[in-house]
Fold each of these.
Amino acid sequence: MAIVKRVFLFLLTNFLVITTCSIFFHIFGVGQYITRYGVDYTSLAIFSLIYGMVGSLISLWMSRAIAKWSYGVQLIDENVADPRLRNLVRVVQALSRKAGLKTMPEIGIYGSNEINAFATGPTKSMALVAVSSGLLERMTDEEIEGVVGHEVCHIANGDMVTMTLLQGVVNAFAIFLSRAIAAIATRPSRDGEGRNSFLYFIISSVLQTVFLLLGAIVVNWFSRHREFRADAGSAEIAGRSKMIAALERLAMNYDRTYQEKGALATMKISNRPSGFLGLLFASHPPLEERIAALKKA
């Protein structure tokens, strides 16, 4: 049922976004790619690319601020009084240097019983690594190093930017194909009947939603690939045994901890999929597969 709710919310949100943007573009004459001679595919392609990329880039630029606000992240530094937090800062800084980061990421903690952590931010020099209070309470120092190494490698690999660009390209293809097909389906008839603008809007909106859902499969497949890569990176800079121990701890405690749903869950180190649709749209591979991959390497 969880995946059904997520799909429904995606469809509803997407429809509202499309409606709002379409009205705005129509009022201000943006994206006039349909002429009396047909579709200007060059103009449509440019419009689709801009339309598709802008939203993703804005989301990327705001990602660090949104994460802080959504989770109530409290930033910490090396002067913090709590020895556990001082150790966390030391670990993040040490692993960041080993990963080749020139600018240390911000470090934060958020209150949650779950055992999890995430990294986000628009660039390598404007990144955030945050861990849950549950992680600090239930994980050993070695396991924490494995988790931190994973998140630092996400930053070093430029995963936030890469995922944003991929999502932007997927958006652009969805916008282009939906509008091109809708234009063909509603083209004026030979008897002089004009294009049905309302029907065009409905067809393009429905098709765009469908194509975005299909594109989400591609985006999430790549997201699962980046998790394996971050695991391997953490094994290199923190130690393979520490990364394996961290994943085993996550697998052991996952079903007993609070599982957060929604888009922000994709940033975290662990987000277990369930069911066929869950696996298809999962942003993370099963923990068991990640552990096996590290043991085979």
Amino acid sequence: MNKNGKKIALLCSLLIISAVTLSVLYWLYPNQSQQSLNSTDQYSNNSNPSQLHKSPKNINQLDASFNSTSQMDTEIDCKLQFNSAQHLIVNEHTRNCFEYFISQYGERNIDEIRHNFQLYLAKTFQASQQQQVLTLWSRYLEYRQDLSKLQTQQPSQESYQYFQTIFNSMHDLKQRFFSSTEIEGLFGSEDIYQQYTLDRMKILENNELDTSAKAKQLQQRFEQLPQDWQDSLKDLSKLDDLHSLTAQIKARHGSSQELRDMRVSLVGEAATQRLEQLDQQRSDWKQRVQSYLDERKTIVDSNMSTSAKDQAVQQLKQKQFQSTQEQQRLQTFETVYDQGGTLPFSN
């Protein structure tokens, strides 16, 4: 796979919701823990769990030669599933299986990967099952190879339009190799996630909306997600929206009222009050640190002896920062200040 292909894959993988600090999470949702993102299985409409048939053999007992060197301590991730009629159910497990072998690329060439995968199927699945998997595997390999050759023009600034163009090109490529049912099974979760992230980018980049309107549209778009996605992403999504919109307001020196209106639209009145308390705590800490550093500089620049300076600085620190935790935190600011760096205050 060439560098352009890897770059495209990387850019698309970067379309994820970024996390911000755990302290903000606490203030937004003090009584809730953040949920992890769990992908759900995509089964065919005429199938249910009681009808599923997995590999008839124990994959844990397979020859380790199917693993590459970097995979020696891992289990082969090929939980392929078949319905009661022994038809392959194309879902995320299918793609995980394919990608497990494709990830060996670099340690093994494509021909070796093809050969090993075919041997693995022969050792693990019935003949009728093998043929179904091999047919889809062959098309998936062609898709991945063409994906690596996909060309996109690098813009001066990466934006919603740029990433949407990549997403559209990838979707067109999928349609060349797979049916709509196969696309849904192989890429359904990924497509939902990427399109949601792209829509968020579009809203955030819309200069015709104020931040309060953006917050409302972001919330509306979030509510269009399937319920299980909402349950998984609600905390992380709101945190990222909050971070992005706050940065926009501060970049153009927006008013405190604008900031408050945006927060209320996005997270509600109660969470907004908690965020305002957090803002006040951060402001108080900033003032205390800056005051300490200014007084410390006065002592250091004085004509006192070195021992007297050290004693005065220590007394000043103990007076203004009485807890051990605060004094430990202060050390970071002292070090950065002495090195002439920008003090790491939270925004």
Amino acid sequence: MPVVKLTLEYDGTRYVGWQVQPNGPSIQAEVERALATLHKAPRRVTAAGRTDAGVHALGQVASFAEPAPLPLAAYVQGMNGLLPDDIAVRAASVEPDGFDARRSARGKRYRYRILNVPTRAPLERHRAWQVFRPLDVAALRAAAAPLVGRHDFAAFQAADCESAHAVREVRRLEVERAGPEIAIVIEATAFVKHMVRNIAGTLVEVGLGRRDAGSIPALLAGRDRTRAGRTAPPQGLVLEEVFYGDGAANGPALDPPAR
């Protein structure tokens, strides 16, 4: 059966996260509501990753099996006419039988944004973690380097994570700076729950001088979440891209991107 693949962008500020939950609005519920209107019947979608409350996405991927796919424009322009302003379909394609947004993924890239400013920046309050003391970017980079590679990331795993183990392969971890903005860019084959936010919280402690950059290898080896840093707040996190097939990122839209 053909599978429809949707690439989504959203501002997660007012949502309880991707997954449908009884305690508030979710991204999944809004996407499925729009699809039900288009198809005049319920549709259930699978996402590449279940982003948490307040987390954003630039390249989230969702998929669903569809025996009679609509024209691609219906999934881009049509859905964008039905979705709320803080969610948009950026691209749509029809994939072969067996494609699954989550199981077919070969990796993801996240960006965690930190605004290193002396006072509050109200326009950025939903888009970045605002840290008011100066951060040592060189120390952040030194602390990030040992995290690249295949490791057991139990020290950075949420206590309620349901994964069978915490062994993951980080392909890329870079600390970028542009003016007051610092971005932690991390790409991995997969992630355990809160892994990026826990890494970000720990690296910020290094940048503030509260933790030595050289302590990261021992922290990894100890596998003790209580010895790592705080979980960074959700608003700084963006799911940028999901990788499929040969590792290439999500391809260009078959219909023009819609915002």
Amino acid sequence: MVGTEVVKKTKINILQFMKNRIIVLVVAALCYFNLYAQQQVKIGIIGLDTSHSTAFTKFLNGGEAKEYAGFKIVAAYPYGSKTIKSSYERIPKYIEEVKKYGVEIVPNINDLLSKVDFVLLETNDGNLHLEQAAAIFKAGKIAFVDKPLGANLAQAIAIVELSKQYKVPFFTSSALRFSSQNMKLRKGESGKVLCVDYTSPAVKEPSHADFSWYGIHGVEALFTIMGKDCKFVSRMQSDTEDVVVGKWDDGRTGSFRGRKAGPNMYSYGGVAYTDKGVMPVGGYEGYMDLLNEILTFFRTGVVPVSPEETLEIFTFMEASNESARKGGKIISMEETYKKGEKEAKKLLKKLNR
């Protein structure tokens, strides 16, 4: 009987210990999550030369994104393009706009990086992104880099290489990627995608390779729906539009129709042909879905768009430019990327001097 009582008491003690241990762990977890919920996540903006900067500030600091109340934009470095008139003319106005929401304007990027946890690299001029991204990655700050990642393929490759070198994740995307319809098509909810024809504006900026300034919206949407592994590209041109056709490794085709003039120049849309029928593609739906993805990325560190897919988008655009230079000739994506890689190495060598 004595032995039995000892065993019973021992079991009771063990059970009580386990209960106490579970309670301690639960309380500790609740305290941790409560602390996380209360802690302010500080975000910095580089570049007040785009409407994206003011839109994100209004969402977060203006209380429009209540589910992300713990995130706040606390500082901004305004510059920003100094050569593209349509961009630098906005800066004074946008400085005043973000200041209304309690954003501190800082004199340089290093000062900004010392004040924030995460970065929104919003500079409209893709030519500045390589140097700015280098400073961000060296500081170990996770960032969203707004479109375009670079002004051309070589710059985009160089930024991805820097991200790998410093082991700091980032992603870049157009807001069109995350439209509800494009996401449904991406996930196969409307059937297997067989072919896509996507139309968007393709306004040009001389300092950027064709499509990387504005046509990238439509190209990104095309790749969102079709996925990776495009192998060959051909481009035809007219006064009102450029049409680029890509052939994927599984035999499917997808086209981007970049509008340059005419009454429908600023339209977004098109069709996706699936094994369940013809479906409309998604257009512009604002910035909120993109912001949701950015803040989720800041929380988790998991990129919603892989660097590999981003580089395919830039390779597609550069291959289309090469095709245009050669009168519509079919261009290899692989060969185009190799050329971009060589140029990227030169850029990185120059940057590290």
